Amino acid sequence: IGVGDRGTDVFNTYTTAGRAGGETWHPDFNYFAMQWVQVTGLPADYRPNPDMMTGVRLQADVPVAGSFTSSNTRINRIHNMSRYSFASNLLSVFTDCPGREKLSYPADYIMPMGAIHRNVNLNAFLRTTMRHLGYTGRFGDEINWGNAIVLVPSILHDLYNDTTVMASYYQQMTNFVNYIQREKVQEYIVDAALADWVEDDDRTSGRITGTWGYYLTIKAMANMANLTRHATDAGHYTNLASKIRKAFYDAFFNERSGRYTNFGNNSTLNATQTAQALALDAELVLEENRERVLNALVDLTYNYPSQDGQGPHLSGGTIGMGPIVRALSAGGRDDVLWDALQQNDQPSYGFFLAPTVAHPKGFTTIGERWNRKASKNHMILAQIDEWFHRGVAGIQPMPLSTISSIQDKQLVFQPKLVRDVKSAAGTYQTPMGEARNEWNRTAEGLFTFTVTVPANTAAEVRVPAVGHVQGTERATFVGMSGHYALYTVPSGTHTFSSILDAFNGTSTRLSPGRLAK
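The line above is the sequence of alpha-L-rhamnosidase; the predicted structure tokens follow.
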């Protein structure tokens, strides 16, 4: 990998035996990540061909958790690039990249977890991860890299209803929190050295990302203290989370501009996409300010300075990218995500797709940095894949917050219809079985939507609101919410159909009285 701070080149030498039929060799004790191969030293009259070498894809044997496909070629390609990045960074541990350090930096897998777990089941893998983290009790000094020792047990509960890991490692988790409070906290504010690592817009203060990470850590501790029956701790952490939330608002919200900035009311400068999204996604925003902050996020996305100066661009990094995607979608601005996906200059996923000398057909995995430099195979900017599953396809598992039985697991099916996407389908393996959905719309405006709910699971189906909705007999109409008609359904397969606006693909909003079963 080259002489330098990260190490030196790795060499393998093989001496041929000169067999007439040729010979096959591969390394036994290590693996190499590659996207092209350079062959030198061959006779002048010999022309190599691709059949000389076979690339073998390696990954941990983890179960497939879900699938996604759509009618849109670009979305499908970015999804496949994300999926390959996830797969090639799953070996004996999570790695940051398969071709350089191969180290298990926690934020590299915690931050895109919303996308990773939709592709692979991590129930066993995360248990092993926690065993590694808890074996010595050591943790990273930067809060958003060190807090995996708290967030991994929390994720295991939210995704797989597990409380045994948090109970086993409760002392290690409290040790980390105590360290942060002793060494890093100043009046409920934490300054994180790496800020929003690899973001295109490097103006987000580490005080914002650090305090956000501190808040999430303490909220997770409050929930897990309750789940493990540490009642006194639960009350303490709940109260502490409220104080951190207030401190975040006081320190960073600029009331005049309605934006989060590095210096709050002292300056309107340095308002970034990441700062707005962290506040929105973690519900650090006061309800009366939510619309202003969402509008700020949209404005900062559309007006972000890019190479060509056209259209919206997503500028977030390791910490901010997931919250940006989730905040826009939760705020009903999926159109912004769609528009950003159409861009081809830095920073954009289209920039990864563009041909280069080394990649004539563009990247096949997600790069580490928006400028295409450094590693070509990282997970940290692949958070957009979460939107493909939750938004475009529309399968939304609801995280648990109590010691609920997995029979109480809830699902929401809500497809987000965007521009040129005519159809999408997805699956997700819940603890009770596979959830599945598929939707399609025609040029004439006919919309069909089929969902499959696993056994012992309730679901809410949100159908784009129209004048006449046809659904299965077992679907119960609940009411209208914006442009969606809400139904509750039991286990089984249910199909809905409706009429959309054939010109722009959006639904026509009519009164609930016009709805039919």
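Note on the example: The chain has two domains: 66-393, 396-514. The two ends are 63 Å apart (CA to CA).
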